[in-house]
Amino acid sequence: MKSTANQICVNPIAPDPRAIEIAVDVVRNGGVVVFPTAGLYGLGADAFNPQAIERIVQIKGRDRGKPILVLIDQPQMLTQVASAVTPMANFLMERLWPGRVTFVVQARLELPLELTSGTGKIGVRRVAHPVAAALVKTLGSPITGTSANLAGAGGCADIALLDESLKAAVDLMIDAGPLTGGVGSTIVDVSMEAPVILRQGAVPAQEIMDLFQLYREGGTPS
Q1: Exposed, middle or buried: residue 161 (CB in 10 Å: 0-12, 13-18, 19+)?
Q2: pLDDT beneath 70, residues of the chain
Q3: Exposed, middle or buried, 209 (CB in 10 Å: 0-12/13-18/19+)?
Q4: Cut 0.85: pTM above it
Q5: Which of 16, 27, 61, 107 satisfies CB 3.0 to 4.6 Å to 151 for a cystine?
Q6: How far, CA to CA in Å, does 159 sit from each of 38, 80, 83?
Q7: What CA–CA distance (Å, rounded) separates 126 from 187?
Q8: Tally of CB atoms within 10 A around 124
Q9: pLDDT at 219
Q10: Domains of the chain by range and CATH?
Q11: Model confidence pLDDT, tens digit, residues 37-51
């Protein structure tokens, strides 16, 4: 583990547990960390801390009317943020997680409004990156997973290329080296009878709809 004033370098496959503990302490104390997700760096904060979420909104210059997705490391953690998950949603999650699909489900009423923006729904993704998974697992609860960029700008796959104002505003950056980049996650609302694609992303919408058709037919992939 190498570190500077507010940056820690970690092995992307097997991160040093000490580095993860440092980052988790920051999150537990209301801080904001930059951390690696599947393809891009994200901004992580305690999903149950309204003040920490507000900091992310300010750091990004984000519209307060836009909800912020959260990350989990195991399906069981979904119950911490979701009030209900349909059988159809479970079917899709089992086949597409962990990975670059964000599922929108009915949110628990006690979630901060800063997270849901009053929509009554929450976007959830099960993390695939080892560093992100270790961070969520060690914390024991979901963290925010919005991209580490200023509102309107593209996502960032290399910490060295982050906006300087963002670097200065966060409490800690976890550098796991260059990521794969690409587009963000596909966002799909599974709170109703049929999935609704809200944003095209890394996983093709047709793949999701094909799985939904399989679910309707009561089948399993061949």
Answers
A1: exposed
A2: 1-5, 219-222
A3: middle
A4: yes
A5: 61
A6: 14, 30, 35
A7: 13
A8: 29
A9: 64
A10: 2-216 (3.90.870.10)
A11: 988 999 999 999 999
